[in-house]
Amino acid sequence: MNQFTETFLTERDKQSKWSGIPQLLLKLYATSHLHSDFVECQNILKEISPLLSMEAMAFVTEERKLTQETTYPNTYIFDLFGGVDVSTCLLLLLLLNVSDEMSKDCLSILYNTCVCTEGVTKRLAEKNDFVIFLFTLMTSKKTFLQTATLIEDILGVKKEMIRLDEVPNLSSLVSNFDQQQLANFCRILAVTISEMDTGNDDKHTLLAKNAQQKKSLSLGPSAAEINQAALLSIPGFVERLCKLATRKVSESTGTASFLQELEEWYTWLDNALVLDALMRVANEESEHNQGFSSTLREGSLSSLALPQSMKIMHEIMYKLEVLYVLCVLLMGRQRNQVHRMIAEFKLIPGLNNLFDKLIWRKHSASALVLHGHNQNCDCSPDITLKIQFLRLLQSFSDHHENKYLLLNNQELNELSAISLKANIPEVEAVLNTDRSLVCDGKRGLLTRLLQVMKKEPAESSFRFWQARAVESFLRGTTSYADQMFLLKRGLLEHILYCIVDSECKSRDVLQSYFDLLGELMKFNVDAFKRFNKYINTDAKFQVFLKQINSSLVDSNMLVRCVTLSLDRFENQVDMKVAEVLSECRLLAYISQVPTQMSFLFRLINIIHVQTLTQENVSCLNTSLVILMLARRKERLPLYLRLLQRMEHSKKYPGFLLNNFHNLLRFWQQHYLHKDKDSTCLENSSCISFSYWKETVSILLNPDRQSPSALVSYIEEPYMDIDRDFTEE
């Protein structure tokens, strides 16, 4: 800036209409030194700030109108003449000469420039020391919100994840946050504890994921894992999150402090949309609150009676951030530690008490919609909270004995009674459940979830998440008592209604319902009886088969469960089982060899090593289940011979079996080194993992004389079994 004179800048400003910003920056630069007069600095900042904030407000609210008089946006000119660099230097100086007001102005100016001028946020993100320094500004309540919002924006574009263990006195910083600050801090944590990824985890190929995992092993823990460990080492951190997640609206911070935060939001751009939503909710309140929104706009918030719906909105927006952090921690390396703490601090019974009044409350059609969005948009806080809640339940229940905390004492007793009546041992995890930590009230959280699930409209986006959450309760070793608990509440009939009668079209919802149906029916004679009672006509059964066959990637887990159940039933001597075998359309259909071969051919044909993902690898395992059961009956050579014939009939000799050979080679690489995945296969199928390994080895036997080896059925000219699995 020193290379320009004030006279020169003034003359150019008349032509270019720069709003006097370069001249102000020249003065700011001259006074931004250690021994400068910071009063003058503050006056200059007060002049610059409104020039940028008005532009940023218009930018965010999509009302930006550039006329011929404003050729260059103010924020662009501010950055062009070094304003961003001057502001960052000034912030560092202010740390030595404590001035919260000036720090707020600097932070506001920086954020507004980030909002409007492309590239500024990325430049700040590259300054790692500056980003770390920003964390220290959150010690002051006056600058907390501005600092947190700027950090969140910067971390959103930062290529390398920040490491929280590099933040000075992190434990002290977080421990001194009040509950509102901690909730807002969770927005930052959401970025720092989630693995940096580009896209849906299910869509990434297993080849790429395996390669990444090998690379990660050599590099040590990721930044996200380090950050999770850093947070869990802070005394009382998880306990405070649980209290935030479960506090009632009436227990939240009083009106005065909330109004103070609303004032901050009103002047702080990131929350302009939030405020817009809050104001619209306030306008729907009863007449005695009519003056509220106009008072907000005038910026003079005094002791007002805060509308209840605004309190609810405030609490919802906090809770969805907190639940996200808890969900990520539940899926991390310290999962068991987090599980113990979440159980101890009664997160589940706390959420159960909030279920009707906050999480799944009834609300007006327009109440909780952000500016520019509609009621069914995933950006709606109400919808986001519900989805986050369901994801948390899914992570909490998945393959963990703490899942029984989702029930109340009466429901746990019901599980025991089901086991007693069936003359089977009680599930050990039920016996070990600490009754002081379970849900209270008339219904547990799982039962409440089933109730809203059955009432959900056909087109609802929640159906997928609800089914996933309930299915996670059933995953693992099959429990007859768990299945009967859900069957008695009409879950099977609800699923069949959605699949058959509503003829659901959503692939995601169908997949989640098929997976849930498979877990609900597996090895359970009563479930198959109920199925046959509901699907009581050929017309209904054909609709059901049409849904199954429309996408085997979505329905193959059900096919696997029915196939496993059929095998078990055929080996049982029981009148009830014999009756089901003779009457059930689905079991009769699956028992036919042509049906099994059709499934087998298509399951192998729709996947390839290069396209295997966490979502579709189940097709490979289902095809293996069919062949393992054939091997048990000494029919494996027959099935392989039939596959060979089907290949020839499709005019593609060798294509399917070569592909299957490559898939099985990959299977060995993927599963033989993953204890968790192999345990899941064993528990879900009730087939020992050693039998899985043996079957794969037999199929991959290189001896062409072996009647159970794939190579025996691939003619020499079509042999192509040595492909490299390297991800291109």
Descriptive account of the structure:
This protein is mainly alpha-helical and 728 residues long. Helix content is 66%, strand content 0%. The chain is built from 39 helices and no strands. The chain has helices at residues 6-16, 21-31, 38-60, 74-80, 83-96, 100-116, 120-125, 128-136, 141-155, 170-175, 179-192, 206-219, 223-232, 237-246, 255-267, 272-283, 292-298, 308-330, 335-344, 347-359, 381-397, 409-421, 428-432, 445-455, 462-474, 480-487, 491-501, 507-521, 525-534, 538-550, 552-570, 575-583, 585-591, 593-605, 617-632, 636-649, 655-671, 675-685, 689-699. Helix 6 (100-116) packs parallel to helix 9 (141-155), helix 14 packs antiparallel against helix 18 (308-330) and helix 34 runs antiparallel to helix 35. It is elongated.
Concise summary:
This protein is 66% helix and 0% strand.
Distance between the termini: 50 Å
Q: If you compute it from the alpha carbons, what radius of gyration comes out, rounded to the nearest whole angstrom?
A: 31 Å
Q: How would you describe the shape?
A: elongated
Oligomerization category of the chains in this entry: single chain
The helix-and-strand class reads: mainly alpha
| Residue fraction in strands | under 5%
Helical stretch tally: 39
How many runs of DSSP E, i.e. beta strands?
A: 0
Mean pLDDT: 84
Helix fraction? 55-70%
Give unreliable regions as ranges: 63-72, 198-202, 265-277, 286-304, 364-375
Major sheet attributes: none
Protein name: Transient receptor potential cation channel subfamily C member 4 associated protein
Organism: Equus asinus asinus
GO biological process, one term: ubiquitin-dependent protein catabolic process
GO molecular function, one term: phosphatase binding
